[in-house]
Amino acid sequence: MTEFLEGGDMPVEKWRVVFHVSDGQLWPRALKNITNFLREVGDAAAQVEVVANAAAVTGYFMDGEELGQMVQLAERGVVFKACRNALKEHALENSALPPFVQVVPAGVAELVQKQAAGYAYIKP
Amino acid sequence: MTEFLEGGDMPVEKWRVVFHVSDGQLWPRALKNITNFLREVGDAAAQVEVVANAAAVTGYFMDGEELGQMVQLAERGVVFKACRNALKEHALENSALPPFVQVVPAGVAELVQKQAAGYAYIKP
Amino acid sequence: MTEFLEGGDMPVEKWRVVFHVSDGQLWPRALKNITNFLREVGDAAAQVEVVANAAAVTGYFMDGEELGQMVQLAERGVVFKACRNALKEHALENSALPPFVQVVPAGVAELVQKQAAGYAYIKP
Fold it and tell me: Is the CB of residue A15 less than 8 Å away from at least one CB of chain C?
């Protein structure tokens, strides 16, 4: 579940976690969860990915406080992904996504693969 | 987290995942998640189980589009299970369940055991 | 995912699971899940932890049936934890928590660490 980074005399544990966001109204809670997690373990020791599917993909298209928080978290290394099926279903264009968001073919497959690779799973 | 199937010249990775459905109104999302997952990884490479507990067990007793989708997914190898405690609580008879649904003593125990066996966990 | 206890002639499998409660109204379901789980696998074979974050931390401050159930479960070995960030956000004093509840700096970090240690994850 962990990997080790060369960080000097002591190895630094890297905590890997994938956050699954499927309800648009839970973005504020999810972003707060991630911010608190990074404060606790430290950015260098965290490998955080966010997978949005279902209606939560609309969150990537809204201006406002949440998008600003996402940009800041992306700059700190958090990876944001969007489910292509959910984008299609909500008639959202991949090309209109913010540049920090990566599209995956199926959000659920991404969640399974990340867990298989040792990531913890959190549903905010 | 994965096992390998003899599939010809190359081993085929098998992705194992258990879906936890506890809210009846989330069945459509859960079934769409599973369909998208199977389309992405391929039926032969997937080992999918669905555990319904709490009010979600009522979904097995409703006619309509969702039940038809469940039948089709069951034919493609998806395993559907129902929590016996939840069935009792909702005064539902095991014998009235569709034939493709298996009853487990406690849905949560099933979810823990599947994760212990290497299944990823998804809450739609 | 499991450890073995010295229990006599045969090792007893220990099932480890962390329950994540973030919605206050889902406490009754969470406590029922845990009770059913313990009945199924047996108290001696279970290592159960509950992590409450977001609005669910308020549940530790309410009198009533749920608190009574928590006390009983704690006496049976279930570990209850509360997220310090969530307590602050809801202006709740750590010192007013019931004695069986432990405060952790970040609920999400606790959930990640428990999964990294082999606990299954359940979102009731």
Answer: yes
Cross-chain CB nearest to C1 (options B54, B108, B115) = B115
| DSSP H or E run through A33 | helix A27-41
CA dist A120 and B85 (Å) reads: 28
Say how far apart CA B17 and CA B1 lie, in whole Å: 9
What CA–CA distance (Å, rounded) separates B53 from B101? 13
Cβ-contact B18, B50 below 8 angstroms = yes
Q: How far, in Å, CA of B60 to CA of C52, rounded?
A: 31
Contact check, Cβ <8 Å, B15/A85: no
Distance CA(A20)–CA(A7), nearest Å, equals 29
Entry field: residues in chain B: 124
Answer whether A3's CB lies under 8 Å from A119's CB.
no
Contact yes or no for B2 and A116 at CB 8 A: yes
- Compare CB distances from B108 to C1, C16, C36 and report the shortest one's residue: C36
Q: Which residues contact C45 (CB under 8 A, 6 or more apart)?
A: C5, C12, C13, C14, C15
**Inter-chain contact B116–C2, Cβ cutoff 8 Å?**
yes
CA A75, distance to chain mean position in Å, is 12
Full-model pTM: 0.92
Burial A113-122 (b: 16+ CB within 10 A, else e): bbbbeebbbb
Q: What's the N-to-C CA distance of chain B in angstroms?
A: 20
Between CA B33 and CA A24 the distance in angstroms is 17
Rounded-to-integer distance, Cα A82 and Cα A123, Å: 15
Region of residue B63 (phi > 0: left; psi between -120 and 50: alpha; otherwise: beta): beta
pLDDT (tens digit, 0 to 9) for every residue of chain B, 124 residues total?
A: 455 554 445 554 799 999 999 999 999 999 999 999 999 999 999 999 999 999 999 999 988 899 999 999 999 999 999 999 999 999 999 999 999 999 999 999 999 999 999 999 999 9
Q: Which helix (H) or strand (E) holds A85?
A: helix A84-89
Best of C115, C119, C121, C122 to mutate (most A CBs within 10 Å, chain A) = C115
